[in-house]
Each structure stands twice: as structure tokens, then as C-alpha cells.
Write a structure and sequence with these properties.
By secondary structure, this protein is α+β, with helices and mostly antiparallel strands. The chain has a domain at about 80-180: Sandwich (Immunoglobulin-like). It has 3 helices and 13 strands, in the order ααββαβββββββββββ. The strands form 5 sheets. It has a 4-stranded mixed sheet, with no helix packed on it. It has a 3-stranded mixed sheet with strand order 5-11-10. Strands 1-13 form a two-stranded antiparallel ribbon. Strand 3 (about 105) and strand 4 (about 110) form a beta hairpin. The radius of gyration is 57 Å and the shape is globular. The relative contact order is 0.22. The structure holds copper (II) ion.
């Protein structure tokens, strides 16, 4: 306002100076509105979504079946012979090693060996070397034979197991055990089934550049 008043006044008074003043006027009027509207707003909408779905499932199905252990002499539970003749001295059998033989002798009012071991299907012969008569009585095998002095009896056992027997004439000491093992060893093949199912599925989602 102050400047405009001065110019008006100058134009009126000094005409020749108008030209010179015009530049000044033009400069005044042409005020360039310098508004640097810098819309350089940098808004990088970078949405980086990385979802690596790596599902590594390892399932090794290793099923190893160990070979079945041979059923050993069960001393905990009484055998059929012990149950049928509980008054006999069954403790005489403990700690005695089985003797692999098919011949059982009756001598001095005892069975020899105390424990005989034979494969199944094998004929077992019992001989009496005493002057007195004896019996070979095996409750589990339905064997009950009287053996005269110098005589013998034979029988074949097909089933496996531990069979305790007595001489019914001479309790409580005349007893014995027959262990019948499997005729042929059938080794139980170990079934080792190893199935490693490895499922590796890595699914990485690529970068989503949402900028302009
Ligand atoms: Cu006897």
C-alpha cells in the first residue's frame, strides 16, 4: 500500500520517469507466486510378505521286530509234574545243567541224568538198572510206565516244553525232568521296514512391490 501510493504520485509528477518506473511497476505486478508444491512425497508402500511354508515332515517308520526269545525253563511256575506230585523234592533240579541225551537211567533209586534234554520227535528210552521196579510217570505227557529190573520203555515227545516226572514208587527223591526243544531252529527273520517319508515343501511368496 505504501509503495503503490508512491508510484502514483511519481507518475503524476515526473512523466519522463514513467518509463523507468514502468519497469519497477512491472516488477511489482509480476510477482511470481513461487509455491514449490513439491509433491515429492515418497510413500513407498513396499509390502514385503515372505511366508516360507517349509513343512519338513520326516517320518521314519523303523519297525524292527526282534527275534522271539526261546522260552526257557520256567522255574517260577510249577510244572504239571510238580503240581501232581507236590511232595517230591523238586528243589533237586535247581542249578542242574540239562544233559543232551536220549537215554534216561534208573539207578540207585534215582533218575540219571536229573535233567535230560532232547529235540522234539526224538525217542526217549528209560532203562532200569536197579533190582527194584520203578515207574516213569510224566503227568503232562500222559506217560505212566512201570519198568521192571533190567527192563526199559521208550516214548517219543512231539511237543516242546519242560516236563517233570517221578517214580511213583519212590517218593520224595526219585524225580527228574525232560526238556524237549524245537527240532529245527526256525530263526525269526527280523522285519526291518524303514520308510523315510521326507516331504519338503518350501513355498516362499515373492516380494509385492506396491510402490508407484
Ligand atoms: Cu522208583
Amino acid at each position: 500500500m505504501d509503495r503503490r501510493t508512491f508510484l502514483t504520485r511519481g507518475a503524476l509528477v515526473t512523466v519522463p520517469l514513467v518509463a523507468g518506473c514502468s519497469g519497477q511497476e512491472g516488477e511489482d505486478g509480476g510477482s511470481p507466486a513461487e509455491s514449490p508444491t513439491a509433491t515429492d512425497r515418497e510413500t513407498p508402500t513396499v509390502t514385503e510378505t515372505q511366508t516360507p511354508t517349509a513343512t519338513e515332515t520326516q517320518t521314519p517308520t523303523a519297525t524292527e521286530t526282534p527275534p522271539q526269545s526261546q522260552s526257557t525253563t520256567a522255574t517260577g511256575t510249577p510244572t504239571a509234574g510238580q503240581q501232581a506230585y507236590p511232595d517230591y523234592e523238586w528243589g533237586r533240579l535247581s542249578g542242574v545243567e540239562p544233559d543232551p541225551t536220549t537215554t534216561i537211567r534208573m539207578a540207585n533209586t534215582e533218575f540219571h541224568p536229573l535233567i535230560a534234554e532232547v529235540p522234539s520227535g526224538t525217542e526217549v528210552t528209560v532203562t532200569n538198572e536197579d533190582a527194584a521196579r520203578h515207574t516213569i510217570t510224566v503227568p503232562a505227557l500222559d506217560v505212566d510206565e512201570t519198568v521192571d529190573s533190567g527192563g526199559s520203555v521208550s516214548f517219543t515227545v512231539q511237543q516242546t516244553g519242560t516236563f517233570d516226572y517221578v517214580c511213583t514208587f519212590h517218593p520224595p527223591q526219585m524225580l527228574g525232568r525232560l526238556v524237549v526243544t524245537a527240532a529245527e531252529q526256525t530263526p525269526t527273520t527280523s522285519t526291518a521296514t524303514e520308510t523315510p517319508t521326507e516331504t519338503a515343501t518350501p513355498t516362499p511368496i515373492p516380494d509385492d512391490d506396491g510402490g508407484y
